[in-house]
Amino acid sequence: MTKIAVVEGDGIGREVVPIARAVIEAVRPDLEFFEVEAGYGLWKRTGNACGEETMADLRSADAVLFGAVTTPPDPGYRSVLLQIRRELDLYANVRPIRGEGVDIVIVRENTEGLYSGIEWMESDRACTVRVVSRRGSERIARYACALAKSRRHLTVGNKANVLKSDCLFVEVCTAEAARAGVPCRTCYIDALALDLLMHPDRYDVVVTTNIFGDILSDAAAYLVGGLGMLPSANIGERHALFEPVHGSAPDIAGRNIANPVAAIRSGAMLLSHLGDAAAAAAVEEAVRRVLGAGIQTRDLGGVAGTREFGAAVLREVGRGK
Length: 321
Ligand code: NAI
Ligand code: MG
Known about the structure:
With 321 residues, the protein is an alpha/beta fold. The chain has helices at residues 13-27, 40-46, 52-60, 80-87, 134-149, 164-180, 189-198, 210-220, 261-273, 277-292, 306-319; strands at 3-9, 32-35, 63-68, 92-99, 102-109, 119-121, 126-128, 154-158, 184-188, 205-208, 231-235, 240-244.
């Protein structure tokens, strides 16, 4: 039986994940779900945000549905999500941005770059090492090129004019694109950030390093209604984790106003990863119809609550059967 680990995490993760799970269950009642605890809330109760037991549970799953976790800006606290991405070796962070006139996929290297976790404090300075390896670049370049091959073209977002580490990244990505026969151009990340918002039609697959992809994807949410809309997949050779791009949003948590679309769409990506394109399409279609019928949460200008939106998607999914 296919096993799905469910991590609600903190904040609005606890509100949007149960909805995403219910929607997945509605289209695939044969899947087995099990809950796994991780995050800041768990840390406050037990002193451990993501222990060995949690990691073993996640490793045992065929896929993980993840909400969001709070990371306090405390140098002593390790980010749970970075730990999971690294330990499960989820090297490709895939972030589709789809909406009217917009169809872009940001492919973010997910295990190294500025988020390698190699950091230290000195008396008057703090250092973070930016690691870009040939192997790490090759595998993300291969992933992005395979995706671009089935679509249109590739843009390599970088800052090679300043960072030596990005010279390697660009060299590897352009070589892989040439090998794969994928039309490819390179673009400095700062200029790209503006151009992507002004001319989204110029972009198809964008591959970039860890922190640039993190920032670029939040900014790109502007094109399609904000952070509540964007799903993501974290893919490795052996494991896969699906989560909304947004965080735990403590400013709106517990008020039934979070937009669950990002989480539900992450569920659709999970279904498609399991090879069930029809179920994924059914979920996407249900979300489209509900939004199209004017049922929308507050961030989109509507009045529907998180749960009411979820119920509407569930009704729509049921109708599609
Ligand atoms: P955030 O993504 O949680 O929120 C940014 C803004 O977008 C907030 O105003 C929030 O209300 C709004 N927003 C986010 N998701 C929304 C939704 N589904 N519906 C409606 N509005 C939504 O980012 P922020 O505020 O920078 O971080 C909050 C916490 O989340 C921090 O502790 C941070 O470390 C953590 N975080 C966790 C992530 C993860 O687990 N994947 C990713 C990003 C941040
Ligand atoms: Mg982010």
